[in-house]
Amino acid sequence: MSNPNSTSNSARRMPSIVRALRSVDGIRLTSMFTAYPGHAEEMVAGITVRDYDVIISLGGDGTINEIVNGLMDSNPFSALPATELPAIATIPTGSANVLAGALGIPRDPVDAAWYIASLLRSRTRSAISVGHAAERCFLVNAGIGIDAEVISTMEQLRHNGTRAKAVRYLPAIFTAWNELRKSPPQITATIDGKEFGRDLAMAVVSNSNPWTFLGDLPIVTNPTVSLRRGLGFYGFTSLKGVTGLVAAANLAGFFTRLRSPFHIEARERRVDNAQHIQLTATAPLRLQLDGEYINQRDSLNIRVKQGAINFVARADDYTEDQFTKKVATRPVDERLLVVVTKKAMDRTRRLFSTSQKTEANPA
Questions:
Q1: The predicted structure's pLDDT at residue 43
Q2: Which coenzyme or cofactor does it need (predicted)?
């Protein structure tokens, strides 16, 4: 299933992607193209493993979100068990491709196609958690505050014909941050039945780790959150002053040595592996799910179902310890070095897979 309008999808790459997938012995492909928002959800509604073993998504996080909502009828708690639903494979062609990164899948579509092909050959599957909020499933995160403001701004830019590249998020982030500093929301968080924070200036509930607006640069709110467990909650009591700017920069790895001098931890509110999160605000705030603007709400009830759906991915690609050591606690230069190294490894793996296929099937 392909979203032809996703950011990095192109006719030039499609032959290489198809070649990689067709290298899997016995595979039979049926291609479908989305034509409008919500189309992927409509196309997969009611599909089970009796129809297809795997649904391959060529798109971004929004396309995957639609596929999951279509398969589960927007409710993981009443959906069929993961064993009765097709597994999902993601070949990322969106602007951020957060879920692919969290699953250890290359963000380059051609590299990802060869990687997915190798997992299809070995029938590798990994069951992951699915969040539920605002009558919708989500896989990456749910947020009210700065992230939802940025997403809303970017959707307006896309509506006006601007492609959602990472560099274009920067002005939106700066504008949203300034507005929230001037007039911060007052959010109250109740987690697993206990009040955890009051008058918070921002609140992000994450199912994946990491997430990002900025291409491959990881933003880390909850270093030990796993796609295979409960939800992570991150809140901040105040965005004002230099401390607020340092705290925001810390999430992307900037100014990490200033955490102690500016007492950043005193303003942070963080919980990992939560099962039920309730957010309320004194006024309606914008809400985003998986990078898609939903609407405005003054309350939000969020739950998670573990092991809800299978993805074509390795369960151990991004273990908590490995990620925390390599990325989450590191400054921005070390994070980028990890990203570049992984890209080089992905490219080498793709070239190796291609040469192996050529040797096995000489012209």
A1: 97
A2: Mg(2+)
